[in-house]
User: Fold this.
Amino acid sequence: MSSITDGTGRVEARPASERRSLPMAARLALLALAAAAPLLFAGDYQLRFLAEILIIGTAVLSLDLLVGFGGLVSLGHAVFFGGAAYAAAIAAQTLGADVVVMLAVGIATGMAAALLMGVVVMRTIALFFLILSLIVGQIVWEVVFHWREVTGGADGLRGFPVLTLHTGFATIPLNNGVALYLAALVLALVAFLAARSFVDAPIGRALLGTRERQLRMSALGYSIPRIRLMALLASGAIAGAAGALYPFVNQYVGPNAVHWTMSAMMIIMLVIGGVGSLYGAFIGAAIYLGIQTYVSSYTDRWQLIVGLVFVLTVMIMPKGVVAGLKAAFGRRNDAEGRS
Assistant:
């Protein structure tokens, strides 16, 4: 502990962890440096991989709005993400692949899918919500898998136009690792700020209330289904925006993007990173995709490694990697302050 004197001469004690925390300007500078570092040291493949992490992490972030703040665990969340990916891939064939148009298509598709799911499941909770979201997701997967003329069926879709950005003066192609990484980085930042604004707004506080005290919120006159539907729409919009960029990173989108296993994968990422932390979604996505991409080159049992990481996270850091590391560093700073 340390002591400081305020303007009245009184002494106030503050923990060492608070005294040693970095100012906001320093945090932003470190964040900007971390974001710019890959541009200096990573190649095209690594930048595309980082772009995929940011895009998937943004989708996991949207899931965190439901799970972490609404207590609504969904196994149909891939419908928002994968449905938007398919919509963007199909629209690009006729409308062109302007990034603004693709994002608009993705957001509209994600919100439409969220509205459809909300009509079905918004009056349920817990296990019933989980099962109904799974059923809705599997219905969408069946449509995607069998509608070969539009979605490509089991083969998926390939060969999209180059993603572009129209500035009014020139058209910038976003067909290399640097451009795709920057586009995904901007998307992730905007999505994080939007999610944070939603959580801090009255609707976000009400959503937390429905998770903690549903009966009390109903007694106070709040419409629980309406609050959950608003959360679904916000989550669908963010997931849809992420899905709109997804096909252009790997130049492919397949039916697995809307399958329930994709939703389960997002839940695993969210638990590893930390439920309710928002930015933990990107940490969880980086850990999962890193194991999937690099460990799988050495062994086919990479999913076993993911399972071990998941179990260890739940046992050692039940609130996720982000909260676990913050707690560990906090204890270390307190110990240094006392020494």
